[in-house]
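// run 5 | inverse folding | seed 20
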């Protein structure tokens, strides 16, 4: 279990009062047989302050409630992702746009928006469906698969390769590179992973400089910030972050969603019987499948809701548990595909809100549609307890599924 109720004082700065100290390691994923994020949300609501300080990972703040999160995300002048406020995250290259503050952030977002806009993503849907269909057609006759490695990893990486027009044979290398970042518990490990990602992306950019195409990297090369083009570091920081942002998050959200459906066959049967419910179900599945926990650094000594925070202190936002906050949803612990509006913050909020959320939603919906078309019922394999992996993205390690083989 990743939570201890016992308060500790060792390693706690003098300005943090004992009533705001709570021992919690955000890198250890929550466990539970229904919806793990939900079990953790219940426990934190009962035991932890809204904003607390944990001595783990060198000591940092944790925010667990939606209103504080939205407010802090909207105040980059006080709570910033710029690496200059956080010694531990001075990566080379800086990951963009996520490590930039406005106004430069707005220029990077424009470059991304031109490519990831909902209209563009909808045009990709046919390709996305072909990829999903091929993956499901391959595994359906076998009657069994490990969803995480055979679908959750392969599907998004194949789409990403299309976005950057890289060869399909690169997929395992790419997965390893992206996971080197999200699975590394140490900042040094993450810095090394970023350098490797940048090297991979650099080769692709060099090819696009000679022969531009209509892919995402060719678009980034055309980006202008005022009078200038992007620097090499900016190009590589944008490309490297797209990989980190779009692979492990999706693998994880899809694996959580399919794990939930395997454990709740009656909910899956309702979708098989009524596929028109799928888009709403996707939103509710996303709500309960939160994975990523962004962070910010305090830019100057300040007081927030009576709490003293000091320049350079880290704040981690527990977005996955916020879906179960009564401030966002009535009956938050009920998983209801007919919910009028499934409110969540799993894509963040404010100026850094996820630029890939349209693509993420399309990928999950299309996969579910193709899965339903071929696999009318499925369950967790006997004895499978779907262990979680320690990572900065909460994710199941394996989800072994079984279903009746087609005649
Ligand atoms: C279910 C899957 C996904 C989840 C849960 C997710 C979650 C998030 C979150 C929480 C943020 C905000 C980070 C912050 O505030 O510091 C974010 C930002 C971002 N995401 Fe996603 N994401 C997903 C899929 C994707 C995909 C598929 C892409 C692109 C292909 C993508 C691209 C981005 C980008 C570019 C940003 C940075 C935006 C900025 O800093 O302005 N994401 N994502």
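// decoded
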């Amino acid at each position: 279990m990743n939570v201890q109720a016992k308060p500790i004082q060792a390693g706690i700065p003098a300005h943090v009062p004992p009533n705001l100290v709570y021992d919690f390691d955000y890198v250890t994923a929550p466990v539970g047989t229904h919806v793990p994020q939900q079990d953790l949300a219940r426990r934190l609501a009962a035991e932890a302050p809204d904003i607390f300080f944990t001595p783990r990972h060198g000591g940092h703040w944790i925010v667990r409630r939606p209103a504080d999160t939205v407010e802090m995300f909207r105040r980059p002048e006080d709570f910033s992702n710029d690496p200059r406020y956080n010694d531990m995250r001075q990566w080379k290259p800086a990951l963009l746009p996520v490590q930039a503050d406005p106004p430069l952030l707005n220029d990077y977002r424009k470059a991304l928006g031109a490519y990831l806009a909902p209209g563009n993503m909808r045009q990709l849907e046919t390709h996305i469906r072909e990829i999903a269909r091929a993956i499901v057609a391959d595994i359906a006759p076998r009657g069994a698969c490990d969803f995480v490695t055979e679908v959750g990893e392969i599907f998004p990486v194949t789409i990403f390769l299309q976005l950057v027009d890289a060869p399909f044979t690169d997929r395992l290398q790419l997965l390893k590179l992206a996971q080197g970042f999200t699975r590394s518990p140490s900042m040094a490990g993450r810095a090394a992973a970023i350098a490797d990602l940048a090297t991979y992306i650099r080769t692709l950019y060099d090819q696009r400089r000679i022969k531009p195409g209509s892919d995402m990297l060719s678009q980034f090369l055309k980006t202008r910030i005022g009078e200038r083009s992007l620097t090499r570091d900016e190009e590589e920081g944008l490309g490297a972050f797209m990989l980190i942002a779009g692979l492990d998050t999706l693998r994880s959200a899809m694996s959580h969603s399919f794990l939930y459906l395997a454990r709740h066959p009656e909910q899956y049967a309702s979708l098989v019987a009524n596929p028109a419910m799928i888009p709403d179900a996707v939103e509710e599945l996303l709500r309960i499948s939160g994975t990523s926990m962004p962070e910010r650094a305090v830019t100057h000594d300040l007081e927030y809701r009576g709490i003293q925070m000091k320049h350079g202190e880290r704040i981690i936002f527990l977005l996955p548990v916020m879906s179960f906050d009564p401030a966002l949803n009535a009956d938050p612990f009920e998983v209801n595909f007919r919910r009028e509006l499934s409110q969540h913050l799993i894509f963040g909020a404010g100026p850094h809100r996820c630029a890939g959320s349209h693509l993420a939603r399309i990928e999950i919906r299309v996969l579910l549609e193709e899965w339903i078309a071929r696999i009318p019922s499925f369950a967790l394999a006997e004895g499978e307890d779907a262990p979680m992996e320690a990572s900065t993205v909460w994710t199941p390690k394996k989800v072994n599924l079984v279903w009746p083989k087609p005649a």
